[in-house]
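# nightly structure sweep
# worker-07 picked up a monomer target from the shared queue
# config: single-sequence mode, recycle default, output format = structure tokens
# input follows
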Amino acid sequence: MKNIIKPFLFLFSLQIAIFADSARACSLAPDHLGTSNYEMVSNAELIILAEAKSVAPIEQNDGSSNSSNIPEIRFSVLEVVKGSFSNRLIDVLGSIDNYAGRSDAGDFSKVRPGAKRGACNAYDYKLGAKFLLFLKSYEGKWRASGNPFSRINEEVLSSTSPWIRAVKSYVQIGRLDDYEKEKAALKNILSSKGKADEIPGMHSDIENHFNIPSLNKSFEDLKDFFKQSSQEGWRSQKALWAMTKTDAKSAEPLFEKLLADGKWDEHAGPISANFASNKRKDMLPTLIDLFVDSTARMNKINISDNLSKEDRYNYYAKRINLQSVPSSILALADEQDSELIFSKILQVPGQDTLGQNIVWMTYWWVIEEYPSLKNEFIEVLEKMADSGDEEAKHQLTYFKN
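# output follows
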């Protein structure tokens, strides 16, 4: 598939914005799939228990050291829970300014408050406090890393805190290295509820694991998620995304049936993504017509009217669902399809995020895939700009600079 993902990344910008204003929201793409805490442990490269000791000095090109506006925190390693690490100290990106506090020790469904400040995850720390860090190596440095709003660096009071005990148990189960055996081991813990050695918060956490469609689940389990959930519910939607990302070919008949059954409005995003993944060029005209038609119908709805709470929710759910469709259409399109793209997709009305995304994605499609279309695209943008399209005006500045 052509690289049309790049222009869509701003919808899922896991920015390391240490000093981000709390008003800056972490935006997740419609196809974003979360993971359970058990899956987060399984996916982790390195997990350590560490104590925040100081702000680490930042080395300059000349070898000198001084503080930076984006500091690292120097931790003392107390215990390696998963992975291999032999150093006594480790530096991790973070800040000691305005620490927002820890989460409830017995509730693994929540992240600590610092994650809600705009950077998708918490990067605030308190000197002298202990943290269970989920780390990934990036360009020679270790970074706290995981899905947005995940428990990648929770503060714990001691090495016997419930969260650490649960993570250690998950690490041990993960060593089975067999999907069905791991499922059985987790279900065995659920069956032991009420016993003296029960870890507070762990049973509800495992129950949550079995309720989350994710890339770690088997294809058969994902199909069950879809069958057992309301077909318009968020869980079925996430199951469809996971199926097309893990085994698009096997899922193709299901998506063909959804389209034939008139489920486009409910599942436009994963339907179009599946056809793009399977390089179904024959579906391109159909996807374009469906997208243009559904967007036009959505644009006729006046949300300022007295819509019920349910109708308002459905409106926004379908609108967000449409945001990923243009990237799938552009992934299927080639230079010979430029007339369809410029005459239909770019003309979809709307100055909201959806309308802006269409212009932005098409811009990247042209300059990265088909630069020969640049002059034609500029002419289209100029006409759109003359009619008052602000995003078209914005993209024209890139082409002309």
